[in-house]
Amino acid sequence: MLLFLCLAPPVQAQGVTAADEAEIRGVIERQLQAFRRDDGQTAFAQASPLIQRLFGDPATFLGMVQTGYPPVYRAAQVEFQALEWRNGVLIQQVRLVGPDGLPAIALYEMERQADGAWRINGCALVRAPDLTT
Q1: InterPro entries of this UniProt entry (predicted)?
Q2: Do the Cβ atoms of 29 and 20 come closer than 8 Å?
Q3: In this model, does residue 87 exceed pLDDT 50?
């Protein structure tokens, strides 16, 4: 079972509306749920055109996430944190607990498309402090 937590609303990033925040969260949630179902097509659809070109097809993308991003691929817990601009890039921080029970922070780079939609343009994982003590 995938558990989504939202203990406190993320701080609104400058120039980003509440509707943008909701769409960004929805894009990330759809992708995480797709990974849980091994639905490469839906997960791939949440990625930016650049990421789609880099990986070429949903199966290759899904395989990369399975091997390189276990906390994202099989997140047991998800908590949305700050949404902020870093060096001109909009980053959504998400605290995850992976299948190994260890916490991680996923830094999702978000990119607005020409049609106004938000897509994931990359994700970096960093170790998170364990807050379960």
Answers
A1: DUF4864, NTF2-like_dom_sf
A2: no
A3: yes
